[in-house]
Amino acid sequence: MSYLKERILEEGVIYPGNVLKIDSFLNHQIDPGVMKEIEKEFYDHFSDRRITKIMTVEASGIAPAIMVAAHFDVPMLFAKKKKPSTLKAEEAYTAEVYSYTKQTTSTVMVPKDYLNKEDAVLIIDDFLANGEASMGLVQIVRDAGAKVAGIGICVEKSFQPGRERLEKEGLDVYSIVRIESIDSKNQEIKFKEGH
Amino acid sequence: MSYLKERILEEGVIYPGNVLKIDSFLNHQIDPGVMKEIEKEFYDHFSDRRITKIMTVEASGIAPAIMVAAHFDVPMLFAKKKKPSTLKAEEAYTAEVYSYTKQTTSTVMVPKDYLNKEDAVLIIDDFLANGEASMGLVQIVRDAGAKVAGIGICVEKSFQPGRERLEKEGLDVYSIVRIESIDSKNQEIKFKEGH
C-alpha cells in the first residue's frame, strides 16, 4: 500500500457529507516526507511532457505545487482568490470557481505576465472532487493560449464528477490516491485501483 | 550582492505607500531556485535550535515555509484565516491580526492538536512590515506552551516597526534581505546591512 493511502487510513477523519479531513499531514499541517513522495510520483509520471510551469490555486495547493516545481526546476504560479491592489483587472486572467461546500462563486486570477503561448502547464492540487478549481485553472491556461500538459491530484474523490469533467476536456489526470467511497457512519474508506 | 537582492532590483516594482511588488519570483509566481537559496540560508542560521516545527500564515508564507520544513525535515503548520467547517472553536488556538493595508482585523487559527509544549517553532514569512502576522503566530505558539525558536523573514521593511516589536519580545529575527527605504517616485530601493 502506498505511503499516502497508509496515512489516510491512519489519520483521516470522515465527516458527514463526504468530507475527508487529512489536515494532519496534507493541508493544514504538512509532512514534508509526504510531499517528497508526492513530488517524485508526479515527476515520474509527467517528466516527458516538457513542463514549463506548475500551477495551483491558493491556499492548500501551494505546498505540493512548490515542491513539484522544485523537482521539475520550473516556476510555480498560484491563482489568487482576491485581486491584489497592485493588479489591474485588465492585467489578469480570471475564472469563476463555484464552491459546493460554501455554495458561493469566487473569482480566481493570475497576472497575464506569467503565462504565455509557449507554456506547458502542469496543474497540481491537493483534492479533486467536483473539479471546479481545476476547470478554472484550465480555462485560464487556455485563455493565455498555453497548453495544459496534465493535472496532478494528491487525493481524488472518484465518486464525484471532477475527473470525468476534466477527461471530457481531453486532459490527462493523474491522481496519487483515488477514493471510491467514504462512509462517515463506519469511518470506512474504500480506495479505487489505478491513478 | 545576494541572489534575493539582485532579483528585487531586477524585477521589483514600487507603488506609492511603500508597496514593493515582487510577485514574479516570491509570492504569486515563485521561483524554486530562489526558494532553495532561502531554505539553505535559514537552515544555516537556525539549524542549532532543535527546531521541531515550521509555522507560517496562509497564503504567501506557505511556499517558503514548506521548503524550509523539507530542509529541516520537520512538519510545517500554517495558520488559516478562515475556520474550516471541521474545526470547532474550542479546538483551535487563535490570534487577531490587523492588516494596515486593508484596515481590517482577521482571526488566524491553528488546530490545538498540532502544537504542544515540547515544540520549538521557527516562524517563516515572506514579508515583515508591521509584524502583525508574526506577532499573531508568536501568541499562538506561546498559548500552546511551546517556544518560538526564531523568526525567518525573506524581505524585511526595516523602516516599519515589525522587527522592533518582535525583538522587544526577546525573539531572534533573521531577515535575508533588509530594506532601508523605498522611493516610488524614483523607483529606488536602498538596502540595509546585516540580517
TrEMBL record, chains A, B:
Xanthine binds at residues 20, 27, 157. It holds the Pfam family Pribosyltran. Pathway: Purine metabolism; XMP biosynthesis via salvage pathway; XMP from xanthine: step 1/1. Coiled coil: none annotated. GO terms for molecular function: xanthine phosphoribosyltransferase activity. It comes from the Bacteria. Keywords: Cytoplasm, Glycosyltransferase, Purine salvage, Transferase. Its EC number is 2.4.2.22. GO terms for cellular component: cytoplasm. Homodimer. Belongs to the purine/pyrimidine phosphoribosyltransferase family. Xpt subfamily. Converts the preformed base xanthine, a product of nucleic acid breakdown, to xanthosine 5'-monophosphate (XMP), so it can be reused for RNA or DNA synthesis. This is Xanthine phosphoribosyltransferase. The lineage of its organism: Bacteria, Bacillati, Bacillota, Tissierellia, Tissierellales. The gene is xpt.
